[in-house]
């Protein structure tokens, strides 16, 4: 009765199910890890933003990047803006995520001669990406700023590819090593997203501030993980259901129709006729003779 399991159709079906189950289990764990990473990321942001500001040199230096766990930490720094080496970072979105424009990246020259890259905020584009956009003037004189410390941007981390032949004073990524070559002076690793400046600049000296990173949502990764594991459990259940259906159909076909079995068709003119006994049959035969 079970030899049909060795048929080509059932062998392929069984092998397909066995191959899909471990794949779906791994997909579930992949979504689980994404959920855990998102939760850890949100906790890192919350802890960093809640911490008191510290001098920027406590967390970064000219020969090192900020540690991964120090991302989004609030830091302070003092110096004079070098507007002569100011650049804009292309294809960056505003706070609402809809309009595409530029980040304004201005070096802050510290008292020891080292530079700190400062993302002063977002400005809209002019419509012509080949021209330098209208940028608010940086405050003059010595300023003390507060901002969120970030690691250098790279193509691997952001997915943004560096293009050759860009217009003058435009870049694709915020990278301290690249800017150090242009500045000709040591640059602290990473950069700072500006949140406050003292003395307070005039309104026309302020770009649109880069908003705090989102730490509210964790996505649907956990739901997707459970979904993949339910799919995994459904494979053997579905296989058993198909097996039982196949067995039922084969047993029914092997039994075949019975003469007096249920469902036998009876002519309409005989459904209500009385049964003919052998005696009546014999009598009828004698009369006919």
Automatic annotation (TrEMBL):
Low complexity bias: start-end ranges: 275-289
Subcellular location: Cell membrane; Membrane
Native source organism of the sequence: Streptomyces chumphonensis
PANTHER family per UniProt: SURFEIT LOCUS PROTEIN, SURFEIT LOCUS PROTEIN 1
Membrane topology per record: Multi-pass membrane protein
Name of this chain's protein: SURF1-like protein
Family: Belongs to the SURF1 family.
Coarse class of the protein's main subcellular location: membrane
